[in-house]
Amino acid sequence: MAENDSSQEKTEEPTEKRLRESREKGQVARSKELSTLAVTLGGSAALLMSGGILLDMAVRIMRACFSQDRSHLFDPRSMSELLVGAGYSALEALVPFLLLLFIASFVGTAGIGGVIFSAQALAPKASRLNPLEGIKRMFSVKALVELVKALAKFSVVLVVALVVMNSQLAELTGLPHEPLLPAMLHSVKMVGWSLFIMSASLVLIAAVDVPFQIWDNAQKLKMTKQEVRDEYKDSEGKPEVKSKIRQLQREMAERRMMGEVPKADVVITNPTHFSVALKYEPEKGGAPRLVAKGADFLAFKIREVAVEHEVIILPSPALARAVYYSTELEQEIPAGLYLAIAQVLAYIYQLRQYQEGKGKRPASLKDLPIPDDLQHD
Fold it and tell me: CB count, 10 Å around CB of 163?
């Protein structure tokens, strides 16, 4: 029981397959605090860099709108042209600002976890509409962590905002005494720097949240020992299926081998245990080739097929064992057996001549020369 319980604990590191599937589902480490930091810092930086351009654009649009001749106000075409021109000027000034914001949001989102697009993550999930699941999420550990982060973020930003406002109090009170345009530009700079400083304070929150999100995602991806075993079975194949496949492969190989026996020149046997079938094709060169071999029941089947197709069967236990153990299917016999096999082939040739009435019956083969290193008991 204890072993079964421990196997259900997620103690194993995720496999490559698990990591790949999690990315396909969009389950990667993401930090909202890092995204918020990047967007606010990027926005404040963009405001500081393009604030003057935006202010100049606003002034030009206001001048163009408020300096229209009275007759233009009653001309729909002139008003349309004014609206299009103001929109074009606004867009021209806003493009750099929006581009910087887009880059900042992209970097913040892809800062950890990388860039991925997952259709599965966008798919609707019924569990999100389940009130019970929603209540569980509200009172989960993750929700508690999010609450703590929100309170910490609020506190940090509030303190920094009060410090910034206090440090700029003199400048704020002096704005009404400045000319209009310089005062507006000064205000934009003050807002930009204030936002930048308050955004920088979020670095502390992001520095805590990013490692936590990486750790939390790693914990979610961990697997139990049973999951690892099941995945291995799925990827490598279940033992019973693999055994069945091997059995079918053996049966197919045996059928192909049996199909070669009728083409053999001779089947050499150890009458009770081994059978080997050899074929010699002098026109192709090389040595005789092993086309079939088997032990016990398979040896009997080879002899049975040989008898059926009138292939000469030669009992020679020592030679049969030597060929069986030294030669694989479709390979040529080793050089050490050339002399013995040559005598066998000569005997087969003479026997066929005798069967056709063209010569004397050859003497039985005895004491075939088999090297000691190729002999098997």
Answer: 13
